[in-house]
């Protein structure tokens, strides 16, 4: 009887010490050694995929949870994670935060999905910790070099701005309007250049504007690390050390991230393949979600999606 009780107590203690929540549970927070907490959500069951940007992508990438455990989390200073100063938002610290999350969940290895700016984040992590990442998917990623990204200024950005909505956004800012109202007005004014077909802009519902860290000023503060590191922002060399099997998905009508950057990622990462999506823009996951989720499901099931081309064949 005593042995049975002791075994039960040991099992109970082991379960209590296990930091990995059972599949489908959450949300929660990961405390960072440097201060602050990362917010996370967990969905699904199976091998683990980690996706930064929960506030944007936890719904759009939900199909991945049909066959995998997906941990969505918000970067420090974004979404529901704690706020952060501009000096805290650097690439090294962002990569270290992701490593802290991996250790928190006691994952030996994981797969990563990075959309837009987070393509830089997961690529930098995969280059710094090549033995920790099994599969890597980049969706409309920011270019691996500052020069390639900052020189990209397609005319569609200006031609697709709703000038009436833009003036209203400026009026709200000058009159002290709420952060959420200003954020929503920004997307009403500029949403047209984030999609391939202007008629698809109605599919972009900026519900993230209700989250304090996603107001326009906070977003610009967080993105400041791009300009702060412009002199050294070149991940081309580190990308060559990535060991993970890599799929790069790029929208042909992306007017935010330079499509040439996706080609550069695919050329730099050994064995990577590139899949171009016609007719859609930067927010393809809202515009045509199946066009992105279908190839991703193939990729994480161990198959190259149809149309994904190796760098050597281009």
Describe this structure as you would to a colleague.
With 314 residues, this protein is an alpha/beta fold. The chain has 2 domains: 19-153 and 234-313, Alpha/Beta hydrolase fold, catalytic domain (Rossmann fold, 3-Layer(aba) Sandwich), CATH 3.40.50; 156-225, no CATH class. 39% of the residues lie in helices and 15% in strands. It is built from 13 helices and 9 strands. It has helices spanning 2-17, 54-57, 91-104, 118-128, 146-150, 156-159, 163-174, 179-190, 216-228, 236-239, 259-268, 284-287, 289-300, and strands at residues 28-31, 37-43, 48-52, 69-73, 110-115, 133-139, 245-251, 273-277, 309-310. It is globular.
Radius of gyration: 20 Å
CATH superfamily of the largest domain: Alpha/Beta hydrolase fold, catalytic domain
- Helix and strand content put the structural class at alpha/beta
The total domain count is 2
Largest sheet: 9 strands, mixed
Uncertain residue ranges? 1-24
- Give the ordered list of helices and strands: HEEEHEHEHEHHHHHHEHEHHE
Number of helices: 13
CATH architectural group of the largest domain: 3-Layer(aba) Sandwich
Spatial gap, N to C terminus: 69 Å
Instruction: Please list the strands of the largest sheet in the order they lie side by side.
Output: 1-2-4-3-5-6-7-8-9
**Share of β-strand residues:** 15-25%
CATH class placement of the largest domain: Alpha Beta
What would you call the shape?
globular
Helix content: 25-40%
User: What's the CATH topology name of the largest domain?
Assistant: Rossmann fold
- The whole-number mean of residue pLDDT values reads 88
